[in-house]
Design goal:
about 220 residues; UBA-like_sf; UBA domain-containing protein; UBA
Length: about 220
């Protein structure tokens, strides 16, 4: 990195002017020696005559040009620093976004891998009957056998009850059908009256005639 440009000291210039040297002479001494020490500048002033007006003007223009270039360089430096800072911020944001995307992709890949490791049921596995279960060891074997026996007896009882219920329902249906067949349609009123008269005459004949014979037999005796 280049050294900063030389800057004249206003305090040294003031000391030299107090000694009787002109301001342009003192300023030329500082710029020529590039030193702000009073002794060095005073020695230069004693060994060099004061500058001419043309020299003063030339040195003033040179100082103005140096000042302008120095300000431009400082402005460029600040702009470069700002661009570098913005670039670093954008890179950090992009890196964070990429890291987030990578983590999301890794998580998705992990989930997909876990899902792929889950065994799929074989074809027809859900519809097939369960195979024989190996009896457990120790006391669990007795409990399992007892539970299996209880389950078998319960299933048999349910089957018997269901069969009995079906038989009862069949018997009831048959009885209803038989009664419906035995029932005859009601006779009209005229037929019922004639039937009643015939029944009364038959009863009268069956009861009155034998009694009349009994009365006649009793009187003859």
């Amino acid at each position: 990195r280049l050294a900063p440009p030389f800057e004249t000291s206003e305090e040294t210039i003031t000391h030299l002017t107090e000694m009787g040297f002109g301001r342009d002479h003192a300023l030329e001494a500082l710029e020529s020696t590039e030193s702000n020490r009073v002794e060095v500048a005073m020695e230069y002033c004693l060994s060099h005559p004061p500058p001419s007006p043309r020299t003063v003007e030339r040195r003033r223009a040179a100082r103005e040009d140096r000042r302008r270039r120095r300000e431009e360089a400082e402005q460029r430096r600040r702009e470069e620093e700002e661009r570098r800072t913005e670039g670093e911020g954008a890179s950090s944001s992009a890196g964070a976004a990429a890291a987030g995307g990578d983590s999301g992709s890794a998580a998705g890949a992990s989930v997909a891998a876990d899902a792929a490791r889950v065994p799929l049921p074989q074809e027809g596995e859900g519809d097939s009957e369960p195979g024989p279960v190996s009896p457990p060891e120790g006391g669990d074997a007795a409990g399992s056998a007892s539970a299996a026996s209880g389950n078998g007896e319960g299933a048999q009882d349910r089957a018997d009850v269901s069969s009995s219920g079906d038989k009862v329902e069949d018997m009831e249906v048959s009885q209803d059908e038989k009664e419906a067949k035995d029932e005859k349609p009601p006779k009209p009123p005229e037929e019922r009256s004639v039937a009643q008269i015939k029944r009364l005459l038959r009863e009268l004949k069956d009861n009155l005639v034998p009694r009349s014979f009994d009365i006649i037999k009793g009187g003859a005796a």
